[in-house]
Design brief:
Structural class: alpha+beta
Number of strands: 6
Largest sheet: 6 strands, antiparallel
Strand content: 15-25%
Number of helices: 3
Strand order of the largest sheet: 1-2-3-4-6-5
Protein backbone atom coordinates (compact mmCIF):
# COMPACT_ATOMS: atom_id res chain seq x y z
CA UNK A 1 0.00 0.00 0.00
CA UNK A 2 1.38 3.39 -0.96
CA UNK A 3 1.72 6.21 1.54
CA UNK A 4 -0.57 8.45 -0.56
CA UNK A 5 -3.32 5.80 -0.54
CA UNK A 6 -3.26 5.80 3.26
CA UNK A 7 -3.39 9.60 3.34
CA UNK A 8 -6.27 9.68 0.83
CA UNK A 9 -8.24 7.19 2.92
CA UNK A 10 -7.69 9.10 6.17
CA UNK A 11 -8.50 12.40 4.42
CA UNK A 12 -12.04 11.05 3.96
CA UNK A 13 -12.67 10.95 7.73
CA UNK A 14 -14.82 13.67 9.28
CA UNK A 15 -12.85 16.40 11.05
CA UNK A 16 -9.43 15.14 10.03
CA UNK A 17 -6.44 17.42 9.62
CA UNK A 18 -3.41 16.01 7.86
CA UNK A 19 -0.26 18.07 8.26
CA UNK A 20 2.32 17.33 5.56
CA UNK A 21 5.43 19.48 6.09
CA UNK A 22 7.27 20.25 2.88
CA UNK A 23 10.46 21.97 1.80
CA UNK A 24 10.39 25.68 2.56
CA UNK A 25 7.61 25.41 5.14
CA UNK A 26 7.84 26.65 8.73
CA UNK A 27 8.24 23.07 9.95
CA UNK A 28 11.68 21.66 10.77
CA UNK A 29 13.45 20.22 7.73
CA UNK A 30 13.62 16.81 9.41
CA UNK A 31 9.82 16.55 9.22
CA UNK A 32 9.55 17.37 5.50
CA UNK A 33 7.89 14.52 3.63
CA UNK A 34 6.21 13.06 6.72
CA UNK A 35 2.49 13.23 7.60
CA UNK A 36 0.77 13.90 10.93
CA UNK A 37 -2.86 12.91 11.47
CA UNK A 38 -5.09 14.87 13.84
CA UNK A 39 -8.73 15.14 14.69
CA UNK A 40 -9.20 18.89 14.28
CA UNK A 41 -12.66 19.83 12.98
CA UNK A 42 -11.73 23.52 13.02
CA UNK A 43 -8.91 22.83 10.54
CA UNK A 44 -6.19 24.17 12.85
CA UNK A 45 -3.31 22.11 14.16
CA UNK A 46 -3.94 21.47 17.88
CA UNK A 47 -1.41 23.14 20.16
CA UNK A 48 -1.52 20.67 23.05
CA UNK A 49 -2.58 17.45 21.37
CA UNK A 50 -0.39 14.79 19.81
CA UNK A 51 -1.42 13.31 16.47
CA UNK A 52 -3.20 9.96 16.62
CA UNK A 53 -1.16 8.72 13.70
CA UNK A 54 1.94 9.61 11.73
CA UNK A 55 3.67 8.45 8.59
CA UNK A 56 7.42 8.79 8.76
CA UNK A 57 9.64 8.58 5.69
CA UNK A 58 13.13 8.58 7.14
CA UNK A 59 15.20 7.69 10.17
CA UNK A 60 15.28 10.29 12.93
CA UNK A 61 18.41 10.77 15.05
CA UNK A 62 16.86 8.94 18.03
CA UNK A 63 14.88 6.44 15.94
CA UNK A 64 16.87 4.39 13.43
CA UNK A 65 15.74 0.83 14.20
CA UNK A 66 13.26 0.64 11.30
CA UNK A 67 15.91 1.39 8.63
CA UNK A 68 13.70 4.00 6.98
CA UNK A 69 16.56 5.64 5.10
CA UNK A 70 16.51 2.78 2.58
CA UNK A 71 14.72 3.77 -0.65
CA UNK A 72 10.95 3.30 -0.74
CA UNK A 73 10.50 2.68 2.98
CA UNK A 74 8.06 4.47 5.28
CA UNK A 75 6.45 3.65 8.62
CA UNK A 76 2.88 4.17 9.73
CA UNK A 77 2.60 4.85 13.47
CA UNK A 78 -0.78 4.55 15.20
CA UNK A 79 -1.86 5.22 18.76
CA UNK A 80 -4.01 2.22 19.74
CA UNK A 81 -3.67 2.36 23.53
CA UNK A 82 -1.64 0.15 25.83
CA UNK A 83 -4.33 -2.50 26.26
CA UNK A 84 -4.58 -3.22 22.54
CA UNK A 85 -0.85 -3.08 21.76
CA UNK A 86 0.01 -6.56 23.05
CA UNK A 87 -2.62 -8.27 20.92
CA UNK A 88 -1.45 -6.51 17.75
CA UNK A 89 2.35 -6.64 17.73
CA UNK A 90 4.55 -9.48 16.55
CA UNK A 91 7.13 -9.49 19.34
CA UNK A 92 9.36 -11.93 17.44
CA UNK A 93 9.61 -9.88 14.24
CA UNK A 94 12.88 -8.25 13.23
CA UNK A 95 12.46 -4.47 13.81
CA UNK A 96 13.21 -3.80 10.13
CA UNK A 97 10.66 -6.32 8.79
CA UNK A 98 7.99 -4.80 6.58
CA UNK A 99 4.26 -5.58 6.59
CA UNK A 100 4.30 -6.65 10.26
CA UNK A 101 2.95 -4.87 13.33
CA UNK A 102 5.69 -3.76 15.70
CA UNK A 103 5.64 -1.94 18.98
CA UNK A 104 6.72 1.62 18.16
CA UNK A 105 10.47 1.83 18.85
CA UNK A 106 10.13 4.92 21.09
CA UNK A 107 6.48 5.11 22.12
CA UNK A 108 5.44 1.47 22.25
CA UNK A 109 5.03 1.54 26.02
CA UNK A 110 2.59 4.44 25.55
CA UNK A 111 0.31 2.41 23.30
CA UNK A 112 1.75 3.09 19.86
CA UNK A 113 2.19 0.43 17.17
CA UNK A 114 3.77 0.73 13.75
CA UNK A 115 4.06 -1.00 10.39
CA UNK A 116 6.82 -0.51 7.87
CA UNK A 117 5.41 -0.48 4.34
CA UNK A 118 1.96 -1.97 5.02
CA UNK A 119 1.01 -4.50 2.35
CA UNK A 120 -1.03 -7.68 2.00
CA UNK A 121 -0.79 -8.82 5.64
CA UNK A 122 -1.43 -5.49 7.38
CA UNK A 123 -2.95 -2.89 5.01
CA UNK A 124 -6.59 -3.48 5.96
CA UNK A 125 -5.78 -3.57 9.67
CA UNK A 126 -3.73 -0.35 9.40
CA UNK A 127 -6.69 1.48 7.85
CA UNK A 128 -9.07 0.06 10.46
CA UNK A 129 -6.77 1.07 13.31
CA UNK A 130 -6.35 4.57 11.87
CA UNK A 131 -10.15 4.93 11.74
CA UNK A 132 -10.42 3.71 15.34
CA UNK A 133 -7.64 6.07 16.47
CA UNK A 134 -9.43 8.92 14.71
CA UNK A 135 -12.68 8.10 16.54
CA UNK A 136 -10.83 7.84 19.86
CA UNK A 137 -9.28 11.27 19.25
CA UNK A 138 -12.73 12.66 18.41
CA UNK A 139 -14.16 11.23 21.64
CA UNK A 140 -11.35 12.77 23.71
CA UNK A 141 -11.87 16.20 22.13
CA UNK A 142 -15.65 16.05 22.60
CA UNK A 143 -15.28 14.86 26.21
CA UNK A 144 -12.92 17.78 27.00
CA UNK A 145 -15.33 20.24 25.39
CA UNK A 146 -18.18 19.19 27.72
Amino acid sequence: MEMQKIIETVRGLDGVLIVEPEAGSDFPELSWGDAYLYYAPDGRMPERTQPYGTIITKDYPDDTSSALDAPGRFRVNIHVGRAQTESIVDADADPTEADVFHRHPLYGMSGWVCVINPAERTADAVLTLLREAHEAARSRIERRAR
